[in-house]
Amino acid sequence: MTEPHRPLAVVTGASSGIGLELAREFSRHGFELVVAAEDDGLRAVADALGAEGVQVDLATPAGVEELHARVRHRHVTALALNAGITARSDDLDRELELVDLNCRSLVHLARLLTAEMAAAGRGRVLITASIVEAFPGPHQAAYNASKAFARSFGISLRHELRDHGVSVTVLEPGATDTPIFAKAGQETTILGGDMPKDEPSEVAQQAFEALMAGRETVVAASTLTKATHLVSRFLPDAVTARVSGLLTKPR
């Protein structure tokens, strides 16, 4: 007796952190999985989850095209666009890589796969932004700006696709216990080092539930994160920029 066809989920940035936990959520809920990331840790994730691993650098057009080629002839039921990095403002090379990964590749892969979803009349998309989209980010200026871009693009995409059977949800986590700060050399900052952080598994669980419910946005996961997001929307930029700068300034 053959197994019934399982829905397919594609998760980028799946080798660690929120992306890894999102992949686990999809796996627990019976999805067939394609997971993508640049680093070698992806192999172990793919093996553990029984997923198809695609090791590509999504900061390049070639990497996006390679991932798309691996799934273009299969219907993608759910797409989690989670790949992203942060960068210090004194690291220009990494800032430019951040723009390529967090912004350009987001648009490139989203446009390729949502066009196919819309043609099929169904699909769900999760875009990982951040609560920092709401305020300036001294010492990590490009990162905060990229997350404002991700949120705006995601909500705009939602309205473009809503009459085509495709739902888009924007995830806005706060500081989360992932390797993102260490990879950018930000572990000496208050934000990267001392500040309490949410568990990526809790963020992913709330994100998955919001995606399946078709919500526009989800702020995850802790009460502190939700409160920070709410308060930041009412404070002047001069205030939020000063507070953010204190948290992200290298010590």
UniProtKB/TrEMBL annotation:
Segments forming domain Ketoreductase: 7-174
Species whose genome carries this gene: Solirubrobacter deserti
The UniProt record lists the keyword Oxidoreductase: yes
Record Pfam families: adh_short
UniProt cross-references to PANTHER family, sorted A to Z: DEHYDROGENASE/REDUCTASE SDR FAMILY MEMBER 7B, SHORT-CHAIN DEHYDROGENASE-RELATED
InterPro entries hit by this protein: KR_dom (IPR057326), NAD(P)-bd_dom_sf (IPR036291), Sc_DH/Rdtase_CS (IPR020904), SDR_fam (IPR002347)
Family: Belongs to the short-chain dehydrogenases/reductases (SDR) family.
Domain of life of the native organism: Bacteria
Keywords, sorted A to Z: Oxidoreductase
Protein name: SDR family NAD(P)-dependent oxidoreductase
